[in-house]
Write the structure tokens for this entry.
Amino acid sequence: MASTIFIPRLSRPVSLCLQRRAASNSSKRNRNKRDRNKPKKKKQRPDFIQHDLKKAEQFALCDAMRYIRAFEVGQSPTSSKYDLSVRLRSPRNGPVVRNRLRLPHPVDTSIRIAVICRPDSRAAAQAARAGACLVGEDNIIDAVKDGRIEFDRCLCHIDSVSKLNKAGLGKILGPRGLMPSVKLGTVVRDVSGSVKAMVGGSEYREKLAVVRLAVGQLGFTPEEMQRNIKTFMDGLKKDLAQMSDRVDKQIHEVVGKNRGTAPSVD
């Protein structure tokens, strides 16, 4: 009967040990070579890049408006809208500014408003009289599920919140910023007042440290534009002050834009 002879580790042939060591060293060299060839990941900045405004040509508000309006000679008074872009000094990760306000001179009065409430309720009649284009519960919910979103703003009466949540419309309306919520003030009890306040209202939201809002049309006078801009800037500064205990955000630059013209407003 043949017997198996075990060779202790220390008594193994030297050539076998050298071969294994060489293979191990070769594997390590190949691995280090692959690591060196990998593109190094760039460290992300904790905040957004801010350009030096000393080299930028800046204008006072009235002068900037004159230059912008000069590009729109012959256009319809309501065809062009002026946007105000406010760049913030803000950390990359953190809460964003978001709010809604009513400008003294509304820029867009053609907003379509849907109100989710019981169709036979008093709130439904009030919403229709106030100017809502869609009123009801099942008809709006079914239309959204079918992909027919025929409104720009959505309000929900407080009595219909449970039905709205059960319908699971958050996945559809949420990414579009249309999902009613208590935080945004779109879950309401006074439907009539909310619809009237929303007609001609404007919403703004920070994206990549920039807040944009339409503040005027070609037919607006400089005084009307000035009142709209002042209302917007005062509201934005108030929002930044309320967030100061959580994050430090400051206004870096204000730019008025329209069809490619972008003078920096001082």
Remarks:
- Residues 259-263 have pLDDT under 50 and may be disordered.
- The two ends are 101 Å apart (CA to CA).
- The first strand starts at residue 58 and ends at 59.
- Helices lie at 14-37, 61-70, 122-130, 138-145, 161-167, 170-173, 191-198, 222-242.
